[in-house]
Amino acid sequence: MKLLSWLTIVSAFVLFDLFGYSKSFATFSPPDNYLIACGSSQNVTFQGRTFVPDLQHSSLTLKSVTSVVAVSNSSFPSPIYQSARIFSKVASYKFQIQQEGRHWIRLYFYPVPNSGQNLTSASITAVTDDFVLLNNFTFKNYKGSYLFKEYAVNVTSDSLTLSFIPSNNSVTFVNAIEVVSIPDGIFPDQAFSVNPRAPFSGLSELAFETVYRLNMGGPLITAQNDTLGRTWENDAKYLHVNSSAVTVTANPALINYPASVTPETAPNWVYATAKAMGNANVANMNFNITWVFSVNRNFSYFVRVHFCDIVSKALNNLVFNLYINDNSALDSFDLSSFTNALNVPYYRDFVSNSSLESNTLTVSVGPDMEADITNATMNGLEIIKISNEAKSLDGLSSVESLLPESLSKKSKIGIIIGSVAGAVAAFALSVFCYCCLVVRKSKTTHQGHPWLPLPLYGNSQTMTKVSTASQKSGTASFISLASSNLGRFFSFQEILDATNKFDENLLLGVGGFGRVYKGTLEDGTKVAVKRGNPRSEQGLAEFRTEIEMLSKLRHRHLVSLIGYCDERSEMILVYEYMANGPLRSHLYGTDLPPLSWKQRLEICIGAARGLHYLHTGAAQSIIHRDVKTTNILLDENFVAKVADFGLSKTGPALDQTHVSTAVKGSFGYLDPEYFRRQQLTEKSDVYSFGVVLMEVLCTRPALNPVLPREQVNIAEWAMTWQKKGMLDHIMDPNLVGKVNPASLKKFGETAEKCLAEHGVDRPSMGDVLWNLEYALQLEETSSALMEPEDNSTNHIPGIPLTPLEPFDNSVSIIDGGHSGTDDDAEDAATSAVFSQLVNPRGR
Ligand SMILES: *[C@@H]1O[C@H](CO)[C@@H](O)[C@H](O)[C@H]1NC(C)=O
Ligand SMILES: *[C@@H]1O[C@H](CO)[C@@H](O)[C@H](O)[C@H]1NC(C)=O
Ligand SMILES: *[C@@H]1O[C@H](CO)[C@@H](O)[C@H](O)[C@H]1NC(C)=O
Ligand SMILES: *[C@@H]1O[C@H](CO)[C@@H](O)[C@H](O)[C@H]1NC(C)=O
Ligand SMILES: *[C@@H]1O[C@H](CO)[C@@H](O)[C@H](O)[C@H]1NC(C)=O
Ligand SMILES: *[C@@H]1O[C@H](CO)[C@@H](O)[C@H](O)[C@H]1NC(C)=O
Ligand SMILES: *[C@@H]1O[C@H](CO)[C@@H](O)[C@H](O)[C@H]1NC(C)=O
Ligand SMILES: *[C@@H]1O[C@H](CO)[C@@H](O)[C@H](O)[C@H]1NC(C)=O
Ligand SMILES: *[C@@H]1O[C@H](CO)[C@@H](O)[C@H](O)[C@H]1NC(C)=O
Ligand SMILES: *[C@@H]1O[C@H](CO)[C@@H](O)[C@H](O)[C@H]1NC(C)=O
Ligand SMILES: *[C@@H]1O[C@H](CO)[C@@H](O)[C@H](O)[C@H]1NC(C)=O
Ligand SMILES: *[C@@H]1O[C@H](CO)[C@@H](O)[C@H](O)[C@H]1NC(C)=O
């Protein structure tokens, strides 16, 4: 482990040196770069870029029955609007795409006068293969003289078709089109929704429309000065109170991009100007700077806030809050703790709706009153509309309902492929809706079924993005499962017998994946039978992962897979039965008797052993990714076992420091660093385990939205008390007076280290285990000697320690499917190393 973190540090430095600086000079060159002047006969230069006539472009085809060209003799409003192509029937441009991924689609419209048509009253509808961009727009009631629209659409095939649809007996037109690649890192799949407070995933499958892009306090930046051809406007006209803000500027050359932010994120001109709190001549300096934007309340918005501390003289002075509408987005936000230097760009992404019942969205920054200085700042802001359920950015009609059928898909095959894709999309949508529903539901009500032995994907607040690709691979691999070595095969009849034909009275729990029943095998063994819904493809990848992971892993503190059944397209897993259910149900929400401190420590130690084995026991380390109190199950002797490997991922190989991945896991337990950087390490599990430790101590859910804001998140709440050394104030009242203070202190310190903001600062699972063992020792010694005193933090003092209990290698494999010897050998090796570490007299 030490080697690994050392490698992390070294490679971080190497990366920084090699790319940190050169990056800010390398400009992105888009694989696809169409700049099209429609109807023009010559190249048009606009904002430093050359637009080529539509009919002169080799990899662009225009399908249109009739089209005419309009050319204006004045260059008002700018040269790009001088010409237009006018269509009286549906027409489309088909662009060959070199590289899949998000592309800008920028459209320019101006009702050129003297065209022979009244373009002012023309209706404009523009759609891509999947998304409606513009629906029935007309200049008739529009205030401006021209219209510029910017969209970002993820193109997932080798072409993009852009269609323009006139309304009946009328014409439609377009002046210029851009289709340009966007670098992959610019738009994430995930952002943080501010209301409800939850991660929002699945953005990569949605279309975006830029509605506002502001350079706070700065000049207008046009395509010429932005490597991605974006326009950034000054913020002044959106300020709620002009005097609340002053402009701050720095030399753009001093902006120091870190590895995670590039000039493609935003040009240095954006970061070199900011708004900060004005000296508003008010007695109370506690006010917000607020910007107000008019938005369409029928849509959700992606909000990216850019920061760069050009205001402060020193680090850690500037601490402020960010609000979107009336919702807190960043609380006591200490910019320097993320950038570690001044003049370093940083940004955060959010998802928000308009403010309640209105067509506005407000963004505010205000000082944190406990900070050393009273000030707040913002450098840039992007507000981007997200496509709705109809895959539209304008209205409720879908592409299918707008395009005449004959044109929507070229041939029968096209239609078939289309409807399959549609079904997949509808499925993805329903998964997404389901997740939203679950998140929302769990916000207001508590789980109806506290006893859920094998919490499945989709249950509680677990969130997952199901992508078409992963489903496909899931199906493929699942078919091949039968041939691999996965424990006992059960016939469907055996399963029916064991569960009394899936008797609802034996139902243990329901999750997104399906249902879990208690069963009894012929020989009397009690089992838990997890039955995937045969009609739903949901969780197929998770299902496969779980079988593959579990069949490779055997450990006393991991729930064992006994076998499976895939007869009659069933997806059934059979596990050992855990009589005492999930840890959570022994902490709160049920009438079960409270656990003693010693029991709690033993359970945490058991779970930590299971996780430690996952991280280090197998050839390649395994990251659980969904560590939480409902995934720690207790057997009849209260031995803790870690369950639910549906989200597990094999860890980084030695030459890598992390696994990059879409963020998955359960909100409230999610490693903030993982969430931010989407880089998975074992330390993400350590963070989640820290949350579990706090939950065990305080007997309350990881997230409880009903509580006052500062208490909602247990990690934040418990950490404020731990830092004051007063964790006993919020611990389970049942424990008060019954816990050895030194043991509690050790436990609190361990949890605190697990919850460190940065992964590198967190201990390994092995260290956690060691510290918990020590806390248990302190508890036991104290009850024996009545002499509690601990002044150590990191090392083990001369208190005699018993070696770890030997690992129990007996595994309940019923049919000789998996011999388990290799893993057991690993396990024994781990345990040997461990006993040495823990027992100071071992050497
Ligand atoms: C128009 O621009 C394209 C691309 O920049 C260039 O290849 C072409 O020669 C130009 N045509 C004219 C007539 O200038
Ligand atoms: C453009 O042409 C119209 C008539 O076709 C004429 O009235 C107008 O003066 C011209 N404008 C310019 C700027 O040449
Ligand atoms: C074009 O239509 C608009 C709206 O219907 C009308 O106000 C305008 O006068 C018309 N222009 C011409 C030249 O007919
Ligand atoms: C388009 O908008 C006009 C008013 O601007 C309306 O009369 C017409 O019915 C709309 N067409 C469609 C298809 O919604
Ligand atoms: C356009 O005309 C077709 C047939 O002529 C009709 O079915 C359709 O409803 C019309 N659409 C609108 C928006 O008027
Ligand atoms: C585009 O969509 C594909 C397939 O859904 C996805 O794998 C990819 O990450 C997306 N790209 C971006 C930049 O969102
Ligand atoms: C934008 O670029 C132009 C030409 O390269 C330059 O003259 C101008 O100063 C730049 N403006 C900003 C704000 O960078
Ligand atoms: C605030 O600033 C905007 C833009 O500079 C200006 O249009 C507006 O009149 C100002 N409002 C007041 C009250 O000064
Ligand atoms: C915030 O910082 C800026 C830049 O240093 C300064 O001009 C402004 O007066 C500060 N605001 C307050 C309220 O101190
Ligand atoms: C929102 O949608 C409703 C119909 O669902 C529509 O009546 C309303 O005009 C829409 N609001 C806006 C601002 O588009
Ligand atoms: C946000 O608005 C969208 C579109 O109206 C709606 O579907 C969604 O439920 C809203 N979300 C919240 C949290 O109100
Ligand atoms: C700043 O705005 C937020 C959100 O609207 C609000 O809750 C808070 O009270 C405001 N702060 C002050 C000092 O007005």
UniProtKB/TrEMBL annotation:
Residues annotated as binding ATP: 530
Signal peptide as annotated in the record: 1-24
Occurrences of domain Protein kinase (ranges): 502-775
Membrane-spanning intervals of the chain: 413-439
Protein localization: Membrane
InterPro entries in UniProt: Kinase-like_dom_sf, Malectin-like_Carb-bd_dom, Prot_kinase_dom, Protein_kinase_ATP_BS, Ser-Thr/Tyr_kinase_cat_dom, Ser/Thr_kinase_AS
Pfam families: Malectin_like (PF12819), PK_Tyr_Ser-Thr (PF07714)
Keywords: ATP-binding, Kinase, Membrane, Nucleotide-binding, Serine/threonine-protein kinase, Signal, Transferase, Transmembrane, Transmembrane helix
PROSITE patterns reported in the protein's UniProt record: PROTEIN_KINASE_ATP (PS00107), PROTEIN_KINASE_DOM (PS50011), PROTEIN_KINASE_ST (PS00108)
UniProt membrane topology term: Single-pass membrane protein
Name of the protein in its database record: Protein kinase domain-containing protein
Organism whose genome encodes this protein: Hevea brasiliensis (Para rubber tree)
Classification lineage: Eukaryota, Viridiplantae, Streptophyta, Embryophyta, Tracheophyta
